[in-house]
Amino acid sequence: MNNNILSLQSVSKYFTTSDGLFSSGRQFAALDNVSLDIKEGASLGIVGESGSGKTTIARLICSIYKADSGNIFYKDKNILSLNNDEKCEYRKNVQMVFQDPNNTLNPKLTIKSSLIDGIKKYITSDKNKIKEHLESLMEMVGLPFEYLERYPHEFSGGQRQRISIARALSINPQVIIADEPVSSLDVSVQAQILNLMKSLQKNGITLILISHSLAVVSNLCENIAVMQKGRLLEYGNTDNVLSSPKTEYTKNLLVASSYTLMKK
């Protein structure tokens, strides 16, 4: 019995581009025969340029996309063959934080209303316990409890991302997948969100971070996967991969980012 919480085995995903009204289009591999294991409680950063396949991996794990070939295992269960009850439990345990928090927050609902349905469904229906849970969530993401009565438009971008993280955490997931969670935020706010992401690991949550920034990944993640055009080029301990890259692509990413690995 291994301690992998997620395992991708020879996973591929294809999309078809349209070449015109009377053309059937061209098929390309967004993900090409990718295999990787993610340990429970670990942190993995997936890096690569646009079109590398890193977001496709995230969406496959979250079942937004379905793999065309290969298998994805969650605690030794193939997510492609889960029954309805198991799918519901899986969606509860694997949550995604998107680059744009507006994708997850309903502008017509208060923050409390956005959070409370999931809590009632998965955690508790007791009013006192719901209040305690909400208090704990807001404290965890560094926002005052009274902000629950506000609407998304009343917050800054950084605050909305904190609320988006709170929403993902509200149902006590085991895995958080964060897709470029700070790339649309001001530099002054990015460090606050990254520190929040780092604190999640202290609670035993498995973190998968999708990013184009080697500096962000090296700061947050113990392991790194380097992607290019749908293929996994390098995978291993972050310090080891970045200090001794084996491929020209990884070396070029290091040069392009003007990144120097800081020894920890």
From TrEMBL:
Keywords: ATP-binding, Nucleotide-binding, Transport. Pfam families: ABC_tran. This is ATP-binding cassette domain-containing protein. Residues 6-254 form the ABC transporter domain. Belongs to the ABC transporter superfamily. GO terms for molecular function: ATP binding; ATP hydrolysis activity. PANTHER family: D,D-DIPEPTIDE TRANSPORT ATP-BINDING PROTEIN DDPF-RELATED (PTHR43776:SF7), TRANSPORT ATP-BINDING PROTEIN (PTHR43776). It comes from the Bacteria. Signal peptide: none annotated. InterPro entries: AAA+_ATPase, ABC_transp_ATP-bind, ABC_transporter-like_ATP-bd, ABC_transporter-like_CS, P-loop_NTPase. GO terms for biological process: transmembrane transport.
